[in-house]
Write a structure and sequence with these properties.
Layout (H helix, E strand, L loop, with lengths): L4 H7 L2 E5 L4 H13 L4 E5 L5 H12 L4 E5 L4 H9 L4 E4 L4 H9 L4 E5 L2 H10 L3 E4 L7 H11 L4 E4 L8 H5 L7 E3 L5
Helix pairs in contact: 2-3
Bound molecules: 3-phosphoglyceric acid.
Length: about 190
């Protein structure tokens, strides 16, 4: 059970992956993304200001935006995400200790895979929506096509090396539900 991540991915085919350094970034990002008609943001835990940035973005713009946390790689970070009541959680991978907590959090989430065995592990747990990361390094569109032929029930959100020039090639595929990337916020 992925706590209805499907709804978020279906409604948001483009998911900006951002870093926030300070409170001014929060407003800048809101304006930039709003101009593009985007209503969803993944704020990564890659800056000291990240948690504060997530709380602030949610407080100021949470009525309009789905505010997610990205780069979640530990149980501590999942607990903190629950505390802040984020709208969704993104992890670059999948560990045994995170599985139960993610499901119990009641927060929609997506975890990263890049190989067939990782996809099969996620399928065993019952997860159907996966992040394909880092997409460009692990074969990009060609890998998505190959995975589509084998894992027909799985829907992917590729991220990593997606940009203005190639995002449509991913979104055209039946097994790609949305794409993520930092290019959307640049
Ligand atoms: C991610 O966290 O999903 C990626 O780092 C985004 O990759 P990009 O900067 O190549 O878009």
């Amino acid at each position: 059970m992925q706590n209805n991540i499907a709804e978020i991915l279906e409604n948001n085919p483009l998911i900006p992956v951002v870093t926030i350094q300070n409170s001014a970034d929060v407003d800048k990002l809101y304006l930039k993304l709003s101009e593009k008609g985007i209503k969803c943001i993944e704020i990564t835990l890659r800056t000291d200001f990240a948690w504060e940035g997530i709380a602030l973005f949610k407080k100021k713009y949470g009525h309009e935006f789905k505010v997610g946390v990205g780069t979640v790689i530990s149980r501590t970070q999942i607990h903190k995400s629950i505390e802040l009541d984020v709208d969704f959680i993104v992890s670059p991978g999948l560990t045994t200790s995170m599985i139960q907590l993610l499901e119990a959090s009641k927060i929609p989430f997506i975890a990263g895979v890049s190989t067939p065995s990782e996809i099969m592990r996620a399928m065993e747990i019952g997860w159907k929506y996966l992040k394909f990361f880092p997409a460009d390094i692990f074969g990009g569109v060609q890998s998505m096509k190959a995975f589509g032929a084998i894992f027909s029930d799985i829907k992917f959100c590729p991220t990593g090396g997606i940009d203005e020039a190639n995002y449509e090639q991913y979104l055209e595929l039946n097994n790609v539900i949305s794409v993520g990337g930092s290019w959307l916020a640049k």
